[in-house]
């Protein structure tokens, strides 16, 4: 073939190639209806330190009881995608020879602005937190509670 028929044949192949590339880009690329891989703080976080002290950590600064030794043994923060969260802290109180272990747990809600977060508790108390990658830092009364996931 010569002339316009031959040019039209190449035009058809070019059009098919463009369509294939467009479809591949749409299927393989990110679009508004595909999965969102934006990092979020959603998940389960484990307490690893309080004010730089690894667990178990003493924290008389939260419980100014002069006759008791209070330690945090473990803690967990669960953050759900629906804005709900919960936290728990296992503590040990030692008064003289008496040792008591207990769990303090509470539900909460959370909001975020980029990597800054606010956790709100039923008592009306709110605390600030920030997260980066697999580390979340919750600040309570100027004390840093560091969690990892």
Shape: elongated
- Describe the oligomeric state of these chains in a short phrase: single chain
Strand arrangement across the biggest beta sheet: 1-4-5-6-7-8-9-10
Distance between the termini: 67 Å
Count of extended strands: 10
Report the radius of gyration as a whole number of Å.
27 Å
| Element pattern in H and E | HEEEEEEEEEE
Average pLDDT, rounded to a whole number, is 79
- What count of helical segments does DSSP give? 1
**Class computed from helices, strands and strand pairing:** alpha+beta
Largest sheet: 8 strands, antiparallel, barrel
Q: Which residues sit in consecutive blocks of at least 5 with pLDDT less than 50?
A: 12-34
Helical amount? 10-25%
DSSP strand (E) fraction?
Answer: over 45%
List the helices and strands and how they pair.
Layout: H1 4-28, E1 43-50, E2 53-54, E3 57-58, E4 69-79, E5 84-95, E6 98-113, E7 116-120, E8 126-132, E9 135-140, E10 143-148
Antiparallel strand pairs: 1-2, 1-4, 1-10, 3-4, 4-5, 5-6, 6-7, 7-8, 8-9, 9-10
Short précis:
This protein is of the alpha+beta class.
Report what the structure shows:
By secondary structure, the chain is an alpha+beta fold. It contains one helix and ten strands, in the order H-E-E-E-E-E-E-E-E-E-E. A hairpin with a 2-residue loop joins strand 8 (about 125-130) and strand 9.
